[in-house]
Write a structure and sequence with these properties.
It contains 17 helices and twelve strands. The protein is of the alpha/beta class and about 400 residues long. The chain has two domains: about 5-205 and about 370-395, Crotonobetainyl-coa:carnitine coa-transferase, domain 1 (Rossmann fold), CATH 3.40.50.10540; about 230-315, formyl-coa transferase, domain 3, CATH 3.30.1540. The strands form three sheets. The chain has a seven-stranded mixed β-sheet, sandwiched between helices. Strand 2 (about 40-45), helix 2 and strand 3 (about 70-75) form a beta-alpha-beta unit. The longest helix is centred in the middle third of the chain and has 24 residues, at about 165-190. The mean pLDDT is about 95.
Length: about 400
């Protein structure tokens, strides 16, 4: 059930956002703003944004990134649909778009045109690349993971591998939010809006900056993560009697507590292992010994012992395991989201708290055009006009 009355208690209450996003990058930017209380209008074609119909890897995109928004269905290729978008733009605080290069210009909704309609508008353009030699190239999350070295660092040597989630689309979208909030702060000072750029390629470059720094310091390219030289004495996935477990021993104090929790035999009193430096030097001897020690033990027992000893550890989970994660459930961090008329699932909210309570689910992901009538009525359209625009196909009024 929608609870728009909760909007007023949230920090971005009163902000109107036009979300022209598609797939993940734009909608994830709009999602953060919506979860924080902004009135986010999801602008999509009358038949619904194509992400609604994706299968395979993308089947969960729409439900995951479009809660707490209102859907307004406009045919931007129809003059009347475009006119409605421009009317909404004139009253908005923020516009978010991640269309390909040139699309918003062809529609007359680019920054230069928008600024003339609404000088207070903050316009966030989410692209593959920031302005420069690459700016007109098409880009996707996976493309830039390959281009900026993240896929090289993720996969085994010679086998570049994209990350297992749309990390760059989401990271670029969240950086768009950072820019939007900064531009709104500047608008408070000057009274004028401005343009914000965020991009996939530069977001990926930022993520691999630690590896760039390592290359500069060592004079050699860093090896991919599966072949890396660990910075820690024990930082590994271990086979157990039933399921793999990750254990991290990153200090001499960790090692002392680990030895108290497990029977490590002669390793306990080995003077070569008394310091972090010694443990690190002896990693080739210590890790196989721990692998043999942990292999016959149940994973639950290993995790329980490590947690009692305050040793970093974790089961190797699958995403679906999080539906019933006791910590997320106890913290109220999972929201009961309607992914389809027949499927609901507990999905994570924003990974932050403002005060004591998690951010609420106020609106379920909307059906296409579910709020067109409501929003355009607020913008001054009469019911007869809406009916005529719907007959012309300029707008969709939902079901």
């Amino acid at each position: 059930m929608d609870r728009p009355e909760d909007d007023a208690a949230l920090p971005l209450s009163g902000l109107r956002v036009l979300d022209f996003g598609h797939t993940v990058m734009g909608p994830s930017c709009g999602l953060v703003l919506a979860d924080l209380g902004a009135d986010v209008l999801r602008i999509e074609p009358p038949e619904g944004e194509r992400t609604r119909r994706l299968q395979g890897f993308g089947i969960g995109f729409f439900g995951a990134f479009n809660r707490n928004k209102r859907s307004v269905a406009l045919d931007l290729k129809h003059p009347a649909g475009l006119a409605a978008a421009r009317r909404l733009l004139a009253r908005a605080d923020v516009l978010v778009e991640n269309f390909g290069p040139g699309t918003m210009q062809r529609l007359g909704l680019d920054w230069e045109s928008a600024e003339k309609l609404n000088p207070r508008l903050v316009y966030c353009a989410l692209k593959g690349y920031l302005p420069g030699p690459y700016e007109d190239l098409p880009a996707l999350d996976e493309v830039v993971q390959m281009q900026a070295g993240l896929a090289y660092m993720t996969g085994p040597p010679g086998r570049p591998l994209r990350a297992g989630a749309s990390v760059i689309d989401i990271f670029g979208g969240v950086f768009g939010v950072v820019g939007i909030l900064a531009a709104l702060r500047e608008r408070d000072r000057t009274g004028r809006g401005g343009i914000v750029h965020s991009a996939l390629f530069e977001a990926t470059a930022f993520l691999v900056s630690q590896h760039m720094a390592a290359a500069a310091l060592t004079g050699a390219p860093p090896p991919p993560m599966p072949a890396r030289v660990s910075s820690w004495p024990v930082y590994d996935v271990f086979a157990t009697a039933d399921a793999p477990v990750f254990v991290g021993v990153t200090s001499a104090a960790h090692w002392q507590r680990f030895c108290a929790a497990f029977d490590v035999g002669a390793l306990r009193d080995d003077p070569a292992l008394a310091t972090y430096e010694g443990l690190f030097r002896e990693r080739a001897r210590v890790v196989p010994a721990l692998a043999a020690l942990l292999a016959p033990l149940p994973s639950a027992e290993i995790i329980a012992r490590c947690r009692r000893a305050r040793i970093p550890c974790a089961p190797v989970a699958q995403p679906a395991d999080l539906f019933d994660d006791p910590h997320l459930l106890a913290a109220g961090a999972l929201l009961d989201v309607a992914l389809s008329p027949s499927v609901r699932a507990r999905l994570p909210g924003l990974p932050l708290r403002l005060g004591d309570a998690p951010l609420p689910l106020r609106r379920q992901p909307p059906e296409a055009g579910a709020h067109t009538r409501e929003v355009l009525t607020e913008a001054g359209y009469a019911e007869a006009e809406l009916a005529e625009l719907a007959r012309e196909g300029a707008i969709g009024l939902g079901r």
